[in-house]
Amino acid sequence: MTTPEEELLPATRRTLLHRIATAQTEGRAPSLVATVVRDGQPVWTGSRTSVEGHGPDENVQYRIGSITKTFTAVLVLRLRDEGVLDLGDPLEKHLPGTGAGEATIAELLAHTGGLAAESPAPWWERTPGSLRPELADVLGEQPFRHPAGRRHHYSNPGYTLLGALVEELRKAPWEEVLRREVLEPLRLHRTSCRPQAPHAGGWAVHPWADVLLPEPSEDLGRMAPAGQLWSTARDLAHFAVFLARGDDRVLSAESVREMRTPAAPAEAAEVAAGSAYGLGLQIQQRDGRLLVGHSGSLPGFLANVTISVEDDLAAVVLANCTSGPLVSNVAADLVRLVAEAEPRIPSPWRPLPELDARVLELAGPWYWGTQAVALRLSSDEGLSLGPLSGHGRRSRFRMNGDGTWTGLDGYYAGELLRAVRRPDGSVSHLDLGSFVFTHQPYDEGAPVPGGVDPEGWRGIR
Q: I need a labelling partner for 352 at 20 to 30 A (CA). Which of 78, 236, 304, 418 fits?
């Protein structure tokens, strides 16, 4: 009997349940709910609770804290894609008078704007946003801690500025713009700025005793774009699919890929840990796979979304405690457990629907100096360049439609590849960012920079 693709095997489901049960018990969380997504669909949800009776399901709201930042980043990327702004623009160009306008929009998205991590006292997460009615109240008298663009320094006020930018350019409140441009198109009907029943209550668990204290649930006011949202495991599962694949109603696949690309200089400790930050997304190398997503926390709540694009898997973990289970580790483990127990079955290989002979003749081995590389033509009508074997520079290229290709990743990202032809139409060489690739090492029939010794190759006695 064949197991339907959308179902997980019983052994896998039990392993997932064991992982979240261990997390809830050892982390002493009042409740924990998790969902796994495969091939674009939720395929498993599990929960544990300290309360007798029915545990939370995928439709119970939890506060998701800084995962809100990813939603705000989506709104900013939409403005960029519409041509309203450029990520290289200083904030001052579009939102003057903040006192932090020298930071660029890209730097704010990547937490490299040099701004403080938090707003001035009192602790903004446990006090009403009415205490900080203006941007000046959020930024304080000295908003900068570092020179803009020099280092990654996580900043909640930075995302407050991005929310204000959205409001300025859309001429509408951030909450309204978010609902209209993201939540409604993606059908995230259980994601909101204020809790909607059924929702979990936020709790603090005493570090040395098994007792609880209710946490306040404040409206963050100006700080909302940094951490206000409430959501469910199911809504965040659908949001994870969007972050992996894009949706032209909101952001294209290319734009969400840009969000998933490292955009911040990493500290030494982050390099060692294999972590980075993109445009509103955290990036981590773990257990041999690249994971993207975001964590969130506010007093009383922990949240995480983790995505492995290559495995077409994602996991969401939500808990209602101020500290406790390491939800990012739990989510990463859920992805790993499914990937290892039920490896993704690749799509069938299919040949190209059409063949361009002038492109086919470029496929095969080439030489940069004496280094051998291979140019391959793939079924997605792109090209890839990489070493014949072992390690070396690898890049994929997108066809531009005019006989040239643009690098998508690796060393040659953004660089132009073109085939240079002789008067008779035959290919002389490849030009890639001024590098000359020839059919033979230092081909004397090609314009190799510096020329080729007329006596050619030789031995030494």
A: 418
Q: What are the contacts of 42-45 at 24+ separation with CB within 8 A?
A: 42/234, 42/237, 43/6, 43/7, 43/8, 44/8, 44/12, 44/13, 44/16, 45/233, 45/234
- Tokens 């041509």 map to which residue? 83
pLDDT of residue 267: 78
pLDDT per residue over 336-348, tens digit each?
A: 999 999 998 888 8
Contacts 24+ apart (CB under 8 A), 205-213: 205/28, 205/29, 205/30, 205/321, 205/322, 205/323, 205/324, 210/28, 212/30
Cα torsion through 297, 109, 130, 167, rounded to 10: -130
Residue carrying the six token digits 């003749």: 361
The two structure tokens encoding residue 74:
């989506």
Per-residue buried b or exposed e for 191-208, using 16+ beta carbons within 10 Å of the residue's own CB: bbbeeeeebbebbbbeee
Tens-place pLDDT, residues 151-189: 999 999 999 999 999 999 999 999 999 999 999 999 999
Q: Give yes or no for a contact between 408 and 337, defined as CB atoms under 8 angstroms apart.
A: no
Q: Which pLDDT score, from 0 to 100, does residue 380 have?
A: 65
Question: From its phi and psi, is residue 167 left (phi > 0), alpha (psi between -120 and 50) or beta?
Answer: alpha
Q: How far is CA 230 from CA 198, 279, 362, 394, in A?
A: 11, 21, 52, 41
Q: What is the maximal distance between C-alpha atoms in the chain?
A: 88
Instruction: Kindly state the tokens that stand for 340.
Output: 């290892």
Cis peptide before 198 (omega within 30 of 0): yes
Q: Within 13 Å and on the Cβ side, how many CA atoms surround 191? A: 27
pTM of the model: 0.90
d(CA 100, CA 91): 8
Task: Sort 24 into a burial class: Cβ within 10 Å, 0-12 / 13-18 / 19+.
Answer: buried
Q: What angle do CA 124, 127, 132 make, to 5 degrees?
A: 65
CA dist list (Å): 291 to 33, 377, 437: 20, 28, 34
